[in-house]
Specification:
The protein is α/β, with parallel strands linked by helices. The chain has one domain: NAD(P)-binding Rossmann-like Domain (Rossmann fold, 3-Layer(aba) Sandwich). It is built from twelve helices and ten strands. The strands form two sheets. The chain has an eight-stranded mixed sheet, with helices on both faces. It is globular.
């Protein structure tokens, strides 16, 4: 069955049985993460849900709890703040203590166009949260994926077109801070991280990809102001902004995690429930820029990330 930009999570997972699978999802207290959790639980998957605010996360779980009563799935809600590496490490230690395997990790949480700031560990907020937090979280949990075929899905964005990664200036110490450039750097990092994850894991059945969910009205845009909207780099003249519903936006995540051919998506960037084509038009929102798939940059980003977080993750 083929899927596209208007497909929803339930359509993608129609007749898919996820019983006995363990799925970890970050950012599950709102928007795409909340919908991703609901739909995989509705199809029988057990979930570990990482959220920054446990009370908010519990309120967001009403639909998933209802689905779990019907399917018998297990739901675990755990606190994690991706802007604090101590929090990420405590979270991963607890998950590893209580579980001997995971089948899928969906790195969904993120921030966008934040004011200039720093994480707890002193990193620029968007790069530190969107990339470095997940870099540590995913790598520390990769041993739990070692038992069989497994997938890692990194949420990226068409915003990767705003900038490649700049490895010698991750904190904007050499250039003036720009919220869109910072977002672009972090979203390119999400793709490049998937490229290197897939290279390191494919021989043992751990496949990774990045996905662009589309343009959706969620809490991700809570930091946007009239000023940042006015500074948004333009799309090609005449290209309309196409808005998706939340179930449509989360569809590519579940498609990549459970339905798509592993060899087709491994190390790739996906959108609209398909593998995206290369984009050479700076004013076109669709497709993926070649720099975000560059294997040499992906390896360099991995090494730089290990230096920044002061933790190494061998093959």
């Amino acid at each position: 069955m083929s899927f596209g930009s208007e497909s929803t999570t339930d359509q993608v997972l129609q007749d898919v049985d996820l019983r006995d699978q363990w799925v970890l999802i970050t950012g599950a207290s709102a928007g795409l993460g909340q919908e991703t959790a609901r739909t995989v639980v509705a199809h029988g998957a057990n979930v570990v849900l990482g959220v920054r605010d446990l009370d908010k996360g519990e309120r967001a779980l009403a639909a998933a709890r209802t689905a779990a009563r019907r399917t018998g799935a297990t739901i675990e809600l755990r606190a994690v703040d991706l802007a604090s590496l101590a929090s990420v490490r405590a979270f991963t230690d607890a998950v590893a203590r209580d579980h001997d395997r995971l089948d899928v990790i969906i790195a969904n949480a993120g921030v966008m166009t934040t004011p200039e700031g720093r994480t707890v560990d002193g990193f620029e907020t968007q790069f530190g949260t969107n990339h470095l937090g997940h870099f540590v979280l995913v790598n520390r949990l990769r041993p739990l994926l070692a038992g069989g075929p497994a997938r890692i899905v990194n949420l990226s964005s068409a915003g990767h077109r705003f900038s490649d990664v700049v490895l010698d200036d991750v904190n904007f110490e050499k250039t003036p801070y720009d919220p869109w450039l910072a977002y672009g750097r972090s979203k390119s990092a999400n793709i490049l991280f998937a490229v290197e994850l897939d290279r390191r894991g494919r021989a043992v059945g751990q496949r990774a990809c990045a996905v662009h969910p589309g343009t959706i009205m969620t809490e991700l845009g809570r930091h946007m102001t009239e000023e940042t909207l006015a500074a948004l780099p333009p799309a090609r003249a005449g290209q309309e902004m196409v808005w998706k519903s939340i179930p449509q936006g989360a569809a590519t995540s579940v498609w990549a995690a459970f339905v798509a051919d592993a060899d087709a998506i491994g190390g790739r960037y996906c959108e609209d429930c398909g593998v995206a084509a290369l984009n050479t038009d700076p004013e076109n929102r669709s497709g993926v820029y070649a720099y975000a798939l560059n294997p040499d940059t992906a390896r360099a980003l991995w090494s730089r990330s290990e230096e920044l977080v002061e933790e190494s993750f061998p093959n």
